[in-house]
Specification:
This protein is an alpha+beta fold. It folds into 2 domains: about 100 residues, no CATH class; about 90 residues, no CATH class. About 15% of the residues lie in helices and about 35% in strands. Strands 7, 8, 9, 10, 11, 12 and 13 form a 7-stranded mixed β-sheet that branches. Strands 1, 2, 3, 4, 5 and 6 form a 6-stranded mixed β-sheet that branches. A hairpin with a 2-residue loop joins strand 12 and strand 13. The radius of gyration is 19 Å and the shape is elongated.
């Protein structure tokens, strides 16, 4: 883990993460320049993408911490920002690939999941704007390819929900898709994305 030191608007900040993620730590530091100086204090929180970041005062500045996504993030934080910066890298790179302006899914937002979907190879993620307060809008369902070459949803009446961060344990590859806007459908075969449909049902995969 590398300790990255930044001077931002006259205040020293430390961002700790795997060295390979230093470019994204730089991006995070650049974004922090937009925070008014008078707001910065111990326990000040701000959101960027999937994660919430918290300023923790030290002797000579502030260290950024984030929810510990691998150890009860609703209760625990960590100075190691490797996971949140990896998620930010994955999501922003994926959006940039298709020149799409994203809509973040915060780590503690709920995702609706059809029974056995996360253990199925072929699944689709569809984002709805009307799934209720506290929901990300994402619904994960199992699909199958039939003889006509088209994909069909496997019908079920059983659904449950999980927090977005729980996908890191159950189906990590889905995390990169969670910043896509409402109305989009993303199809996975295992960990690979094989189709993306926009809000007009137009394929983005060429």
């Amino acid at each position: 883990m590398r300790n990255n030191r930044y001077m931002i608007n006259g205040i020293v900040f430390y961002i700790n993460a795997d060295e390979a993620l230093t470019p994204m730590a730089d991006v995070l530091a650049q974004a922090m320049k937009n925070i008014p100086v008078e707001r910065i204090c111990d326990d000040y929180k701000f959101e960027i993408g999937f994660s919430v970041y918290i300023c923790k005062q030290t002797d000579n500045g502030f260290t950024l911490v984030a929810p510990d996504y691998l150890n009860h993030p609703l209760l625990n934080t960590t100075e190691d920002l490797t996971v949140p910066l990896w998620i930010l890298t994955e999501q922003t790179s994926f959006l940039r690939e298709f020149n799409i302006e994203g809509v973040p899914t915060r780590f503690d937002k709920e995702i609706v999941i059809a029974e056995n979907a996360l253990s199925s190879s072929l699944i689709c993620l569809q984002r709805f704007s009307d799934l209720g307060k506290g929901a990300s809008g994402w619904c994960v369902e199992s699909i199958e390819k039939k003889q006509d070459g088209k994909y069909y949803t496997i019908e079920t009446s059983k659904y449950h929900s999980c927090y977005a961060y729980e996908l890191l344990q159950s189906r990590k590859a889905l995390i990169k898709a969670l910043a896509f806007p409402y109305g989009y459908i993303i199809v996975f075969d295992g960990d690979s994305i094989i189709e993306i449909l926009d809000e007009n049902n137009v394929s983005l995969i060429k």
